[in-house]
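Q: I have three molecules that I believe assemble together. Could you output structure tokens for the complex as a whole instead of separate predictions?
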Amino acid sequence: MSEHYLLQMKNVTKSYYGTTVLKDINLDLKAGEIHAIVGENGAGKSTLMNILFGMPVIHSTGGYQGEILIEGQPAQITSPQQAMSSGIGMVHQEFMLIPNYSITENIKLNRETLKHSFLSRFFGRNLKTLDFKSMHADARKALDTLDIGIEEYTRVAGLPVGYMQFTEIAREIDKTNIKVLVFDEPTAVLAESEAANLLAAMKKLAARGIAILFITHRLDEVMEIADNITVLRDGRLVATRPKEATSVYELAELMVGRKVEKMTRRTDQVSSGNIVLSIKDLSVRMPGEVVSGLNLEVRRGEILGIGGLAGQGKVGVANGIMGLYPSSGTVLVNGEKLPLNNPRESIKRGLAFLSEDRRGVGLLLDSSIEMNIVISSLQNQGRFIRRFGPFSQLNSKEIRGYALKMIKELDIRCTGPTQIVRRLSGGNQQKVCIARALTLNPDILFVSEPTRGIDVGAKRLVLETLVRLNEQGMTIIMTSSELAELRSVCDRIAIVTGGTVAGILSPDDSDVNFGLLMAGQKAGKELSA
Amino acid sequence: MNIIRNAVHGFGVARLTILGFFLLLCIMAVPLKLDVAELISSSLVRILMWGVLVLAMWPSISCGTGPNFGLSLGIICGLLGGIIAMELELNGFVNLFASIAFAAPFAILVGWGYGWLLNRVKGAEMMLAMFVGWSAVSLMKIGWLMLPFHNPEMAWPQGRGLRVTVSLVNRDMAQLLNQFLSFKLGNIIVPTGLLLFFLVCCLAVWLFMRSKTGVAMTAAGDNPRFAEAAGINVDRHRIIGTILSTVLGAVGILVYAQSFGFYQLYEGPMYMPQQAVAAILIGGASIRKASLANVIIGVILFQGILVVAMPVFNIFTQDMASMAEISRVIIQNGIILYALTQVRGE
Amino acid sequence: MKADTGLETSRKVQIDYWQSVSGFLTNNMVTIMFVALSMAGLYISGMNSTLYINDIISRVSRNSFLVLSLIIPVIAGMGLNFSIVLGAMAAQAAVIFVTHWGVAGFPGILLCVALATPMAMALGYLTGKLFNKTKGQEMISGLIMGFFFAGIYWFIFLQLVGGIIPMDNEVLVLSSGVGIRTTVDLTGGLKYGLDHLYRLPLTTVMIIAGCLGIAYQVYRFVKAAGDSFRNIRFIFGFACMVAVIVWALMIRASGSMVSNIRVPVATWLAIAGLCLFITFFLKTKLGHDMRTVGQDRHVAAVAGIPVDRIRIIAIMMSMVLASWGHIIFLQNMGAFSTYGSHESIGIYAVAAILIGGASVTRATIGQALLGVFLFHTLFIVAPSAGRQLFGDAQVGEYFRVFVAFGVIGVTLAMHAWKRRLQSKLPAVAKAEKE
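A: Yes, here they are, computed for all three components at once.
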């Protein structure tokens, strides 16, 4: 009965180092079907595609369980090459193009048509020369299939993004045996008209009998072209629906919906608190998380959540205000203007930051715990050093005493204050970061992805610590990809889409509202208007 | 078993090989009835005369510019200071300290410019440092030919230019530090002055590394993005580290030269940085992390091998001098290659 | 937001514009500077033109092959291959043994090539492996690898040959019976083994080259029918070739010493053959893969190109070519310093190609040949120019060494700096997309 399915996945499960990231995924794909896969970040979409494409990251971490059938035959896909030869193609989110090559050369990359040369008869295939004439012809054919009028010998560098994407697609359809084509967030980088072209092309391909897996978070696009829609959440398949049987609202709810566990915390409302941080027209040039013209006000004593999908700019807000990425706009801290692009000034004004990139920005991995805890305060507030005229020396005694105190207070599990931070677990590393931020005695604490890469038990501890600090009067601005986490501790949640605040919701708002704001529905309309 | 494996992994195969080679040489020295006291004495001198030059690698690795392959710049400044002091016909300790005093401003200035340049080429510092060093050496050679020095101890009698080697004997400079307060411990001669000078330098750099600036510099080298986020001016601290390294290079060559008894003006500085780099790497430093222990262990191991190897090789080959040179070249460049292969994944 | 986007665009255009201008300047400034420097040096030194032409011909013919061997690794994205000194050592080893066996002349050269090739391949394989472990640091690894292997080379020829490796040859081996003498003299053996195979007067070569050039221009003219620039290009090319022929005839008629200069035709054919081979090779599948790997390793790997293997092959090819190049170099020199000849080979070859306008990521045959010409012009004139200017030839010699190091340093700095600028660009580009 399964013969007429091109691709089937049966109970596919994957875990990394004991953490299950995908569980029992079932997926059936017919020829000519457009199947959308939607879900939040971290729902498991990319892991699923990595499995399908045989990426090394899967097989270097122990492979996967479950079965993949291609045209009814069980297939073990262990390398991208194998995936390609099985007829699976992928249009990557990041373009796999060589800018200095022509469109033809890119389309025929490593699949060049060759012809004999006078040396190849002696030295074999590698010394055959490229047959550009036939390559150009193939490229032309593939481009014509997509109705793209661009000349095939144009250099890729400098082409509009949309054309680059079409070049990628043309490369896939030029492969003779292509059966399944995966589009990984293809419209994320495209302008609206380009996106429309792309969707039209996808339909055309499907009409030719190619099955399409379409990964996205733009629900309107899903409703426009998909035949079937699968929703993933937390590594599980929540639902598979034919398009006719569902709506944007249902999908939004399915995407987000989960039981929200409220943290026990004080109930007195902070809505009356005065404005402690006011952000006006903030733009931050952080690669992949660009903020453009964002406005936001933060009240004293609240926990403000910043949510949104990856790449929409939520992470850029804190990084911009802390001076880590070039930014412009007006930021008032307690009514005073904050000089931007200057981390030192930000720290001086009582701001502190727990970076989302804990190992990259947050820690000196090869230094001791105590040094990690005191260094910011030492450099910016002159604590923990003794001064001798122009000279200064570390005050080892004070540092040791303080570090021991913090280790005890935050329950950092370690062999002692001189242990190297690299050897700590993720949760304890995060606590070291928190300790450093606390050492600065900040008024406002920015926290980005505080529980990323931390096991479940430690997650709760970290969140509880944040709530406790807030109860002691610290204003906290918490950025997180995990909506549930935000909803469990925040007073208000701002959803950032397209680099601006799409809306501010209460943690008790409905799943549908969250889902729609995140999927850019309202925001999308506002922007295009 | 696991502990051993971890230790081997942490220390590195290349370093273990070198350590094993050193131990082998030492063991072989015993049945060969070599004069152990003599060996130790000359090892001590070689180790200490190289000490400050190797020490110069510490700030440069710590501040994130990698091992200072451009140490020649510091060495040139040191030589210039020494030559100026010679021109003024100073003697003994006055000459030594005057040399350092004359060299320091040059070294600071050159170090600043060099640091500025290294900030522009982050990620390719080592390669650039090498060629900056080499071109500076060839420029220096032109300088020695053109600069108006007249002291007949240094200048060629006819024409212009400085001699290839300038003897320090007549200025009471040769072995000045080596002989200062030196005493015999059994048959071993302890070069007290040299030892003290090296230890004072170590202490000074160690204290600097524990100052606010030193801590900031180490953080800037360890993780520039972290340092930036912690309000540390990364570029500024890289320049400070480079200046310090250059100044130490200048002091180091003067210490080296007084022990050697000559200034080698032309070919000397060309390949010296590589030897100093190799020493600190043998001591356990990596391209991005170093400590005082790395400096001391490294210089002892590397120079120790070279001293002990000579007489041992003498037994096997008639041409021991070249054999010692060959083993130096192989060890020195082998360890640098090894360190380069370890960079990936960081 | 709209205004912001506009701003970003104009900013990017500015950066592009700035980059293209600075790119043009940095790519050509070095060359332009060296043309000026060489001309000035030539003028100041007051050198006899016959002497100069004679010298430059022998220098260009002995160095070009070596410099051309640098092109392939640059195309494969591995930068300037300083490790060609290993190939040079393989060549020296082969030359030493062939000299020992007493095979002279052209057969000796062929034997050298046969011996050096497998050695160079093995060394190239090792170096390639090393480079794959030190991606992004290939150049310094190559440089250090050269130093490291020099130690092993010294060990073999100073300690083993005559001892463990038997060699009974009073001329080559030191009087102690172990170790090769510091200089190996090839006179009566391999000296001019290739150069003197077939020589023609310079003027004859010019006339032949001019005729071939005219034939080529005609061929191109016929083939490029429909190209709007066809006539202009044809006339220009034709005129150049005629000028060369006329010039050659004038030299002959004038009876100047230049007409006595003879050209090592076999060597020049070898160089021309290599140029043709490289041109052809880049159009093959393997050559194209190398270009792809050089452009973007990640994309190449995703497309299924075995990146590491391709990189190893590139280094092996370069190494083998370098060993052949060094054989050509040695047979022209006629004698070499056993323990020092290879040392400066890498750096001088790299300096030459850079002076011709190549960079860490781009190198062409034209740049290599122009670079050899300019660099060695400077080499010839520097000492006498130094004597004229400063009364000391030594100054000129130090200056040319300074130039070699300096030009590499400057190129590396420009490359690193440009790369840093470019690594900042994507952020701007992405900002623009949003």
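A: One point stands out. The radius of gyration of chain C is 24 Å.
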